Amino acid sequence: MSALKSNAVVVLSLVVVRLQSALYSIISDCDETYNYWEPLHYLLKGKGFQTWEYSPEFALRSYSYLWLHGLPAKVLQLVTDNGVLIFYFVRCLLAVTCALLEYRLYRILGRKCGGGVASLWLLFQLTSAGMFISSAALLPSSFSMYITLATMAAWLNEDTRTAIAVTAFSGLIGWPFAVIVAVPFVLELLFRKRKFLDFFKNALLYGAMYGVPIVLIDSLYFGTFTVAALNIIRYNVFTSHGPDLYGVEPIMFYVKNLFLNHNITLLLSLSYPLVVLTAACLGVRNTKNRLSPMQGLWLMSPLYLWLFVFAIQPHKEERFIFPVYPLFALGTALLMDQLFSHMRRILGAGRSSFPNRLMGFAVLAVALCLGVSRMLATSMYYRAPMSVLSDLPPTNEELSVCYGKEWYRFPGNFFLPPNYRARFVESSFTGMLPAYYDETQNGTQIVHDYFNDQNMGHPHMLFELSRCDYLVDFDKGAFYDELSAEPNYSVDRKTWSIASSVEFVQADESASFARAYYVPLVSYRYLVWGRYNLLRRNKMKPIS
């Protein structure tokens, strides 16, 4: 009964924390909005933005992936058609899925690596700001993270078929690059265990089982034979420009983002190979852990392989590292386990108890404080784009809500009441914006001349400012300059009045720490605030 209660507490803790992510984390990447929430909104409600990746001539994204989330959302639509409720319902499903997969890996870690490693991994997972932003995100990279959890559990459990099945599913329907996580497992299967027949038989079986319906669904939607996974590989690897058009970053981009999301677990997990080599030289092995130091390092090899592959790519995005986020906690747990073994070897079992506990509590305290502080900062300081639209009144006529410089913070049509349309007005951004799907039966199959894969903007996507009924604007306190490409519309009171306003933190290098972490009674003294405004055009005709 005590074991049952303990497992129930673990499941409940994971579900509650992940549901907090679903309800309070922000949309941190416009790719999530425009490439996934918007096409999903179109599938469910017949209206939504289409990006060039969904144009049949490019077909980089999969409608099969969207329908994984669309089917349960369709069931909810039988009860309610409220877009905000559907949005959070899908998010909660993703959060619970993540929690259950984490629980599965926790149980297997307990059997294979000992209760200490499993408990430490669980605690670091629960306090991870990276898991907070990724666990409920509608992104193939988050889906790949779920598959990483399933793959690691199957690998440790020596469940070859499951590991191959989930990897094939992820590669075909989610993000094909996610198969990198399974490379060490495949190498072990082929060259150490020499199970060539098992591997190829199961790979072909599950490849066909998943691949055929995925290709059929996508081909139906695109109106031509389509293998989206191959298209995205071709674009990213074999074109002359690929994703570099959307910006290149130095390696410090990942260093900063990973430290914000994983703090001390980033440092410790990257230090694990050094500790392993030291342990191997000294012959130290934790008797409570069935894994030798070298086996632990091999188990962690997907993390180091993934970081190497993506660190050398010029185009970097925070979401690209999502698939290996659970491995930062695992590396830290394994490292702590090895350090405890070193202490027992040097001081003896009795005398090492206090320093081991002190070390464990110190690491957990740092992870907890920085992790929770980061979660609070993101949900408190940057939530305005997801809340400012809530004050839009109901209407029976079509009204336009326009975005200029804030186009990339639009949370999606799920947040707009019926009869409202989001529009884009001219700003300093000259790249490719999304456009509404054709609202016809074959809207996904139409090739439009305004889409391209060169990130070149097109006037079709732009709307006349004079026709906007509402405008979303970030007021940073500047004067109104009508000659500017991005004027501060909020102070043009002749044209606009403020319908809704929410505090929003400005990017100020002098307050970098305060913007990144919430510290009670301290952060607000250093933050520079702006107002995220929903502006209403003056003298609008009465809303019916």
Brief synopsis:
This protein has helices at 2-24, 30-45, 63-77, 83-113, 115-126, 129-134, 140-156, 160-174, 183-192, 196-222, 228-238, 252-282, 293-311, 325-347, 353-381, 384-387, 512-516, 523-526; strands spanning 49-50, 399-403, 420-424, 435-436, 470-475, 496-505, 529-537. The chain contains 18 helices and seven strands.
What does this structure look like?
The structure is a single chain. The chain has helices spanning 2-24, 30-45, 63-77, 83-113, 115-126, 129-134, 140-156, 160-174, 183-192, 196-222, 228-238, 252-282, 293-311, 325-347, 353-381, 384-387, 512-516, 523-526; strands at residues 49-50, 399-403, 420-424, 435-436, 470-475, 496-505, 529-537. Among the domains are: 248-382, no CATH class; 390-537, no CATH class. Helix 4 packs antiparallel against helix 5 and helix 5 (115-126) packs across helix 14. It starts with a helix and ends in a 7-residue tail after the last strand. The strands form two sheets. The chain has a five-stranded mixed β-sheet with strand order 3-2-5-7-6. The chain has a two-stranded antiparallel ribbon with strand order 1-4. By secondary structure, the protein is an alpha/beta fold. The chain is globular, with a radius of gyration of 25 Å.
